[in-house]
Structures are given as structure tokens and as C-alpha cells.
Specification:
257 residues; alpha+beta; Phosphorylase Kinase, domain 1; seven-stranded antiparallel β-sheet; 47% helix
Length: 257
Amino acid sequence: MTASSDNEMRLLVHAYLDGELDPAHALEVERRLESDPALAAERARIEELRRAIKERLLPVALPPGLERRIQQRLRILEPRRHWWNFELLAAQPSWRALAASVLLAVVLASGASWFVFRPGQAQATAEMVVASHVRALMATQPVDVTSSDRHTVKPWFNGRITDAPRVVDLSSEGFILLGGRIDVIGRTPVSTLVYRIRQHLISLTAVPGGQAVRAPRAIAGYNIVSWTENGVVYWAVSDVAAPDLQAFAQAFRNART
């Protein structure tokens, strides 16, 4: 399986669990899940993450008119009906799939802030950081600003969040900067840088004003490395092997800006 087809199948697994596939394609995904251990593991990660969020976050009443605002933000004013196929799903995720990913971020941002600051803060924050990483993987693009130039990425955050993040070039270490995005942890907009190693993406979220935490090493199959530097707690999340993620964290900490 090529990297492109592998990514398409991962998107199809997400759509399958969201009930977005027609019966024919749902059956095809079920067959692939039975024969492909990697896809089965991806499904298990998604289901475990959903269970964790459901168990730890109380239901939140969403603001009136939220659906329309999401539609306007996504520039999809009228959902279009179509038959799913592999190419279309990879190129243009459906309204429901996109809305589900955005709603997940909204729920975590608006209603779960109490959860971040109660005992178990590290676990709660880790779960939200992982959820943001998964949401980005489901989106058409995992970044809001696309560039491998740190002098382009860092200024983009000015005026969007309180403090622009530390951005370093780690290409010599094998970690390619793809760009950055803004996530919301608690009710605080924070910066997330995105790097790539081979076919794996690494999300590096910087939460300011934090103290040293004892973070979980993995959630729902996604590895986590966390450290504190100059009053900022960094969270690196990826499905890359744990030693590679540790190497990324060490390279970032050692790099000069």
C-alpha cells in the first residue's frame, strides 16, 4: 500500500466510524479492517479516544447557531449529497466529518476548561492535546499556515495569540517543519507547530504559564512527550515510535533559535 492510499484508507476509517459511508463502501472498509492490522489498530485508537473523552468530559450545551457559524467558517452553506468514493473522500471531506472535528474542538474549548485545572490536570490536558492532533489529521490540512521557513511561521502567530512560539528548523535531524496552527486548550488559544518524519506527523503544542507536569506516555495509541521550558509546557504528540518522538523532543530542546 502506498503512502497516499494509506492516508486515504485512514480517512475512510474515520468516515466509517462517523457513519458517513454508503453501504457498499462501508462493507469495503469492514473487509479491509479484517485483513489490515494497521487499519484495525487505527480504528481501536479512535474508539479508545472517543471513550476517554466521553468518560471524562461532561455533556455541554452548544451555543445557538453554532452549526451555521461552522458552515460559514468552512464556506459550505449547503451540504451537497454525493456518493462516496476513495478519491472524493481524500480530496473533500464531508460536511458532517468536518463539522464533527470542529465540534470536538469547540466542546473541548468551551465546556471543558474546568477539567483542565482540577486535579489530574496533566491527564486532562494531554487528552485535549491528543484530541486536537486527531482533529488536525482529519482536516484537509493539518496546519493553518504552511511553510518550512521558521521566519514565516513564527510571525504568523503575532496578533493571533499572546506570545509567538519558539520555532526551530530541525530538518538536519530528519524532522521537517510543515507549518503551524492555533489550537484551544481550556479556553486559551495556543500555538501548535507541525513537523513530519517520514509519513508521520508530530504536533508540538506550547501551553504558556504552565508548570512541570507528569504527563502520560500515550493515549489511544498516540505517543506523548512533555517538558517545561521557560514557563511553557510543551506537548509533542504523534503516532511515530516513542524513541523517534523522544529524539524529536531532545532535538527541539537543544536547537538554537
